[in-house]
Amino acid sequence: MRKLSFKLGLLFFVFVLGVETVLFVALYVTLVHAKVDEEFEQLLARGNNHRAVLESHYDEVTLEHVVMMESEAETDVVITDEKGDILYFSDHILPFAKKIIPHADARHIPHSGMVVQNNWKNESYIATASPIRMDGKTKGYVYMFQRTASIQNMIAKLKHHFLVVGIVSVFLTILTMFFLSRVITIPLIRMKQATEKLSKGDFSVRLQVKGEDELAQLGKAIQTLATDLEYLKKERNEFLASISHELRTPLTYVKGYADVARRPNIAEEERAKYLSIIYEEAEHMQKLVKDLFELAKMDQHSFQIKKEPTSLCLFLKKIYEKMYPAFHTKNMSLVYRCEENVTVHIDQQRFEQVMMNLLDNALKYSRQGSTVSIDVKTEKKNVILIISDEGIGIPEKDLPHIFERFYRVDKSRSRTGGGTGLGLAIAKEIVEAHGGSIHAISEFGKGTSIIITLPRGE
């Protein structure tokens, strides 16, 4: 991750430095042009002011006064007649003026004046010219000169300022990029450490994730994965422990009673009794293995559901006819109410397995003389099946867990009192494979209702 941090920081730095360089160069060129143009404008404005004074008072005193004013300034002035002959001039400017004035095309100089020498980089002076017009005729010209050293000094200072600001900007950019790369990579480092723990089987990963950006979403996904894996590990351990317990007990019975039945001096009646117990335990193991096989197929997504349009009332009538004798034997009533015939898309064999399991549980945990009922209710898009009994009920603390594998409400009940602990888990998987849902409501000591919701068929 340090390499990633360095690469990200370097990438950001190069990109930002490139942007800053382009912006700084553009700003520098713009400022230089603006400052140089400002110097030209100020020089031309000064020449136009002198020209305006001379147009009002064109006499020797005024001419000398203009020259005297420029002798105390950083600029110089040259005044010529209409032919370009020099009349008045500031000190030291005459040699350069004689080079510029003959080459200036005075006929094309507008009354507002113009720049006649703008090469501030290579020449020692810049110059402007303003024509003096009186009574519609050109009386002469005012030439203004300014040393380019002042402009070059200004540009040098500007370069210095830009260089200092540039160095500070690069330094701040480096700090910012380092900070940003760390901000980005620190969560990635924590996620890498978390995934390394997950790969080693340590699922106790806790990532502190803030925000809603992509990194935060990745962190939440890893945290969810860790939580799910931790839950699956716990569930797997419990599952294996439950299987071990469920198989160990019947195997102990089988081995123990088989050893007794093998004794040569045992009575045939007693041997038959032990063999009967061995057979019952073998049946129990067979049912357990069958249920485990069903769950394994569901987990591997090889569990096939073949839906077909089914009349729900006719389907429930067949279930009723199959289960009625068992209820009658225990002196219990089984009723079903399905007034409105509706069609549902179900796998009849699989859904019969669900109904038989639920009714078998109701039969086991209800008192003699009580009633178990099957009710059908219809909604706009769903069909609701309610299997209700008047049995012992389920404690509130156990109710959320009854559809978990191997979960038993009565942990100490005898083996003859219940099945494998997988029936409701299988029923839940089958119902959800049909696109439905299943849940239970119960009041301890008064009874339980299992509610199945299925999509209504077209």
From TrEMBL:
An example molecular function term from Gene Ontology annotations: phosphoprotein phosphatase activity
Domain Histidine kinase: 242-458
Intracellular or extracellular location(s): Cell membrane
Keywords: ATP-binding, Cell membrane, Kinase, Membrane, Nucleotide-binding, Phosphoprotein, Transferase, Transmembrane, Transmembrane helix, Two-component regulatory system
Reaction(s) the record says it catalyses: ATP + protein L-histidine = ADP + protein N-phospho-L-histidine
Its membrane topology: Multi-pass membrane protein
Any one of the GO BP annotations: cellular response to phosphate starvation
Principal subcellular localisation of the protein: membrane
Domain HAMP: 182-234
Transmembrane regions: 162-184
InterPro entries assigned to the protein according to its UniProt record, in alphabetical order: BphY/WalK/GraS-like, HAMP_dom, HATPase_C_sf, HATPase_dom, His_kinase_dom, HisK_dim/P_dom, HisK_dim/P_sf, Sig_transdc_His_kin-like_C
EC number: 2.7.13.3
Keyword Kinase in record: yes
Pfam family, one: HATPase_c
GO CC annotation, single: plasma membrane
Protein name (record): histidine kinase
Organism: Anoxybacillus gonensis
